[in-house]
């Protein structure tokens, strides 16, 4: 890692799957893994993958004796292929030559992937191959490769091949290999003009059509005769081959420009026509790079930060921002997509969208709020499906799916394979109804950060009301206790999706779910006072909300049951939690390390994790992550429970000892909730969350796709968690607690039409109300509120 660069300076084939994921290039419209140009997918080191935002397809498979339908983010034709061979010999293969030197760099500032490899083949010919690649942030339909081959000790004829390869399947995740995986039907391929080939494919079920056009030009100085090409074409594959005479020490340069359009695109006539028309208009690689670099510069201007701590942490945080912006960027606007949990970087979780947006949107809200607005529309447009799901389950309102893809249907797989035991298991994690609270929370956070009242009144309120209706109808009154209860749900901790020995899926009264349901209903009630009567009338009519519904909201929001362990102050993760057995943590940590997938380990040992007080990830602690203690105590107070600030610390200590961190989201939450009480432990958790992807801490998950929640969550932890940034009562509050490891922190953020520059050290905080179209801003620092006018700079003593 050097400054803006993520560098690998030796060739380690075993690391290639991880490097491919981490060197993915994308632009929020599509992304391509950092596989080498010359490789085909194998089941060992190389897996070129190209994924389109919203590019899903469904296939029916027969697994574990039953038919199941899954929707996958499709691996689209590989546009990378570019290789060479000496006359009548094998094509270049980095695994078959002696690598003399190797360097691979991901340049995050420019969005450029570079590789320089010096190698010797079996005939003792030495060559240097230098390649640069970009996926244009400036024009989302364009990607390009520049490739330079320099013979070191030989001259002679070589053949260069540039191809588009649609003869591919989804094969990136080993445990999915029993499922059907052929999503693409080749339609046509051929040559458009002397230097351009094309390929057109279509998904077999969703009928998304993609056309790719590739223009390949070969340059050698001094210019000789025109290089002639031949065409190689078969169903789903097209290549152009060039024969060239190479001279020792004279670099041969190849430029491959690719234009990609799909039937999901707007402002096109027909994908193939537009691909071929637009490729002709593209300039050189250098020309593309200038525009691409400027587009990245604009994004970095909005999102970069300075942090004085160990430089590794800084660079990894930058890598996280980089990959997040490659997954969703201003190019995403208009695409009608959400943020896939594993980015556009691999096939894990089939490209589905979960609750991880809860960890991602806070960062986007403060830097690119126009993007969050767009991503929230993805949910808004899927209200129809969510309403249908609620009605099917016997509830009112909207019940969003735990895993979402194309049309908002529930996409959680019915069965999953435990790769440790080889057993197929029922998957009841779809019962994570808390996703609905996350969506409402995201709407509210967006509104809080932007003050976008039009969005709230015309889009957000409809979602919040419909979600509140859902919560108020899934909640059942227990007449004995006069408390509302929620049954048949699963909390964020997926290890407990049913009770030990029970045939029925789901749990009763997951504390996190119940409290979040109350919080959503409170927001719905608050909206009644915020939105003008005429709009309220429209919404009430559209959603069939009447006075008795509102009366029930008031009832549920004051009488929801929250389970506690015995007479203690510990919130029980769910009803009956205290009856579970304690887990022998030391024994298992010694064998499997700090972060473990205990569900898989125990199942392979014939046991079941649901028998133990062992969580996959933060569950109760999510409450302290999402809410300030003031807000939470207020919520509990309204419910008639005594809950004090000290109790929060007791709960953190209790669950810290009972969590296996089997999800990369978990460490973020633990780091966050410890930030004020135990900075050392908080930093330790933060460091582990930070390394989730760069070091692939879960051992094999990152090659299947990055973890967008953990990536955004770590940056957000620094920017909001360690600064105590919170928006409450129209005030932007700060209460910094910089860890000792961070000397200072500077960043810029967008808040309600202002650009604010912020600087933090351990005893000082500086706010500059830079520019924007609002005149003043209310800032609260450690309990006191100040008004800061545009252009004003203020310093505060903080002694964090
Ligand atoms: C976690 C979920 C998360 C999903 C996608 C799972 O392992 O348990 O909380 O939403 O991964 O990141």
Automatic annotation (TrEMBL):
Belongs to the glycosyl hydrolase 65 family. Gene3D superfamilies: 1.50.10.10, Glycoside hydrolase, family 65, N-terminal domain, Maltose phosphorylase, domain 3. The keyword Ligase does not apply. It comes from Pontibacter toksunensis. Keywords: Glycosyltransferase, Hydrolase, Transferase. Signal peptide: none annotated. The keyword Cytoplasm does not apply. Residues 725-787 form the Glycoside hydrolase family 65 C-terminal domain. One of its GO terms (molecular function) is hydrolase activity. This is Glycoside hydrolase family 65 protein. It holds the Pfam family Glyco_hydro_65C.
